[in-house]
């Protein structure tokens, strides 16, 4: 006889642990890792803030149709095409914040990634606990007028690990005046 695990919904902690595991697998594999060779040899695990469910936010989501396509600034001369898809508004530490949410125009050509959204952001941990040039979040297009923003899934751009990458720079509109003590920490070897 075989025993099968029951399909039960993941807890928030399990979801974040799976996210962290996936990143560590990607970074450990020489074929998918953004790490430089010298750092890959020593790599054990990325460092994260402790999981904090207070940073899993259900934000009000306002779609912003008919926004123009623009070239997003990056750490190099590359200028990928994006459009603002919407604005998320939420409260952290009794203060209202908002983030612009973007859609990469190139990904619209890929049926598997057509519902992908992107939030590049800065917060008051940048340069201290987290990478000084900002962090990213990946989301899916929501069905309604709310969107889940889980800062426990905030990750560093590849530029945090290797200067050979070209990484979007978070627009000033996405500078949060609060410490987001969730997600990935600064990479100590870089």
List the helices and strands and how they pair.
Elements: H1 12-28, H2 37-42, E1 56-63, E2 69-71, E3 81-92, E4 95-104, E5 116-121, E6 135-140, E7 146-150
Antiparallel strand pairs: 1-3, 1-7, 2-3, 3-4, 5-6
Textual characterization of the structure:
It is a single chain. Helices cover 12% and strands 26% of the residues. With 190 residues, it is of the alpha+beta class. Strands 1, 2, 3, 4 and 7 form a 5-stranded antiparallel beta sheet that branches.
Mean pLDDT: 93
Could you tell me the strand content as a percent range?
25-35%
Main β-sheet description: 5 strands, antiparallel
Give me the secondary-structure category: alpha+beta
**Strand/helix succession:** HHEEEEEEE
Cα-atom radius of gyration: 17 Å
**Portion of residues in helices?**
10-25%
SS field, number of helical segments:
2
Assembly of the depicted chains: single chain
Total DSSP E strands: 7
Distance between the termini: 51 Å
**Outline type:** globular
Uncertain residue segments: none
């Amino acid at each position: 006889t075989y025993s099968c695990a029951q399909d039960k919904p993941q807890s928030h902690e399990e979801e974040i642990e799976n996210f962290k595991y996936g990143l560590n697998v990607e970074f450990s594999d020489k074929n998918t890792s953004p790490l430089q060779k010298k750092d890959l040899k020593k790599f054990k695990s990325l460092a994260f803030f402790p999981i904090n469910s207070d940073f899993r936010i259900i934000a009000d989501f306002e779609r912003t149709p008919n926004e123009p396509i623009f070239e997003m600034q990056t750490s190099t001369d590359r200028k990928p095409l994006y459009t603002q898809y919407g604005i998320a508004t939420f409260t952290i530490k009794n203060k209202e914040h908002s983030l612009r949410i973007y859609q990469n125009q190139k990904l619209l050509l890929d049926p598997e990634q057509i519902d992908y959204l992107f939030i590049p952001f800065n917060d008051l941990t940048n340069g201290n606990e987290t990478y000084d040039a900002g962090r990213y979040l990946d989301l899916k297009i929501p069905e309604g007028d709310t969107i889940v923003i889980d800062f426990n899934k905030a990750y560093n751009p590849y530029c945090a690990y290797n200067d050979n990458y070209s990484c979007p720079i978070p627009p000033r509109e996405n500078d949060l005046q609060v410490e987001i003590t969730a997600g990935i920490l600064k990479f100590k070897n870089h």
